[in-house]
Amino acid sequence: MKGFSDRSFPKAILHFDGDSFFASVEQAMNYKLRGKPIVTGAERGAATALSIEAKRLGLNRGMSMKDIRAKCPEVIVVSSDYTSYSVYARRMYAIVRRYTSLVEEYSIDECFADITGLRPMYGMRYEEIALMIKSDLERSLGITFGVGLGPSKVVAKIGSKFRKPGGFTPIPAKEVQNFLKDIPVGNLWGVGFAQALKLQNLGIVTALDFAQKDEAWLRAHHIAKPYREIWYELRGGSARELATEHRGSTDIGSIIKTRTFSPPSPQRAFVLAQLSKNIERACFKARKHGVKTGAVGVMLKTQDFLYRNAEVPLPVPTNDPAYVLKHVQKHFDRMFVPNILYRATGISLRSIVGEKAATLDLFGETLKVEENSKLLDAVDGLNKRYGKETIGLALSLKAVSHHEPDRQRQNSRRTSFVPLPIEQRKKTIDLPFLGMAH
DNA sequence: TCTGGGGTCCTAGGACCC
DNA sequence: TCTGGGGTCCTAGGACCC
Which domain holds residue A372? Predict the structure, then answer.
């Protein structure tokens, strides 16, 4: 039998999606967990991933462990083990790469692959190639995968979640629209809450409604580029290349470290210590990847989920936490508003450059920074031997144990209301990853 | 809903220059 | 001092993703 013509798959894009990935990895590593209802996320007190068996009991992502244990005492609860999940993710990428070099490592449990033009080489149809890779993955890893085949990434994504778990759905270009009728437009990959709302106000409810609009309509309603691309792919085209450069090592755009602490604190020294800790962890990661940062973003988050951000340029690229802290501290004083409860701080390293890319400035700053790098190597070595965070900045030590004295908590409640600076913004937060509906 | 952590990409608008 | 137009670079912020 003849396969689909090239008009069916002008491009042949695969999307692989590990079923209940974290829970599946736990089961793959420990045979005692197989066939049993298990839930990951014990450390945060809420379910992050659930095995099939746990889902069948009616449990959901985001449910509190308390509720889960009350409802189903037989459920096995484990802590997240991201190190192992990453190992399985890398195995997944490696297996798919045996079949094509064009692989995008999209996330810890997903990847895209481009198999366009490989039919003659394998002597198979695209569907058969997809199934061959799928069964290799499942045999090798002990985890099932949802797999989609389509003329674009958006369509391949639709396919991989069409039948779950363990499904395979090929969608030729001319059949794409048959799959769109029952998909709410907000469920499309790349269409979030805000855009779904906008489209709904324009009378667009399903993905099919969107696909059937014409270009004049898109222009008239100022549909932005990312959504024009989705529209184009729903009509059988391909607008998005695979990002095949492996972003693993040096090719990092930014490094972000944020941490929520509990209970929230109004204390300047404590909040700064938290920030300092985040700076250390971010710089540690930068050193591990052999990169430096030329500017950092500082974030303070209040108990009311108001955010205050500042961009702090650094005179010289660095991955030395003490140097970063020195420059951040000046801005911190301006950002920190007394008598407000803070719940989290964050740091993001931007303008990332390679470790060698230091340029000499007029004031000899570079040389001073360089002197520190040998010391930091030694620190990293010790921390590796004796456990993470054995050695840290003195400031950060304040953040290590946080026992908020009752006296201060009461003080903070009694303090009068202080109007927030205008720079503070409310951010809407949605948590699709935890299974909350938009 | 009572809210974690780590990312990327796009766009609008200001600063600066010719 | 006022007037025009156009280009580039940068940053803040929005939106989205897992």
Answer: 255-426
